[in-house]
Amino acid sequence: MSASPSPRYDTVGRTYAEYRRPDPQIDAQIHAALGDADHVLNVGAGTGSYEPTDRAVVALEPSPVMIAQRPPDAAPVVRGRAETLPFPDGAFDAVLALLTVHHWDDVDAGLRELQRVAPRQVVLTWDPVAMDANSFWLTREYLPEASGEDWGFAALPEILAGLADARVETVPVPHDCRDGFFRAYWRRPEAYLDPDVRGSISALALVDDELLAPGLARLRADLESGAWHAHHADLFEHDALDLGYRLVIAGA
């Protein structure tokens, strides 16, 4: 799992523009975290989700497949990597890094670069302590191969260790979340049977389909029989859940 972000997303990022759309609730929380920053850099920008339209934004993205899916009116994009940002010191007021740090080859170098180019850093990640693999029904009951426990991806502890003066906010995931990240479909289990949905989730797209097939077959059978809904009826009592996603806000 050590491939660089560009080849990885050249392969798994082909359906991002359709399925990884900004969710309004998460969008509002991210934008509030930017404060009064006028000039923003979005690192690992992908197709442009959550980029504010009321400020000057520059995007940085390594994958040409992702860049090609950015809307015509999206912020200007520079092809590059977090570990070697092609910008001078203090070039921006704030920098975004949203669900991207876990794909960087050198997390420490990337975090140093974020702090070098902007006094405020806003990073969306997840907390493995709050939400480990056994806490999510999909990996616990059907797809343990996608748990990511042995992938060595960086998460909240590594980010807090690398950023100064950081505070952490919980990011609740609404039941109808528009951004199709891994746990976004916690109350819509049938979505995980869609290969295009899985193709926009790196934790699933990076696992061989043959390894996922038995678990997906069990999920399909449980949905058809009603067993999944019977076992997880409590989920329908909630409009949003804390699934371990965290917003780290650091610096000035």
Q: Can you give a write-up of this model?
A:
The structure is a single chain. Helix 5 (107-117) links the parallel strand 4 (94-98) and strand 5. The chain has helices at 5-12, 16-19, 24-33, 64-67, 107-117, 137-142, 156-162, 195-199, 202-205, 209-225, 227-231; strands at 39-43, 56-61, 77-79, 94-98, 120-126, 166-170, 173-174, 240-241, 245-251. The strands form two sheets. It has a seven-stranded mixed sheet. The protein has a two-stranded antiparallel sheet with strand order 7-8. The protein has a single domain (5-251), classed as 3-Layer(aba) Sandwich (Rossmann fold), CATH 3.40.50.150. The chain is built from eleven helices and nine strands.
At a glance:
With 252 residues, the chain is α/β, with parallel strands linked by helices.
Key phrases:
Rossmann fold, disordered N terminus, 11 helices, alpha/beta, 9 strands
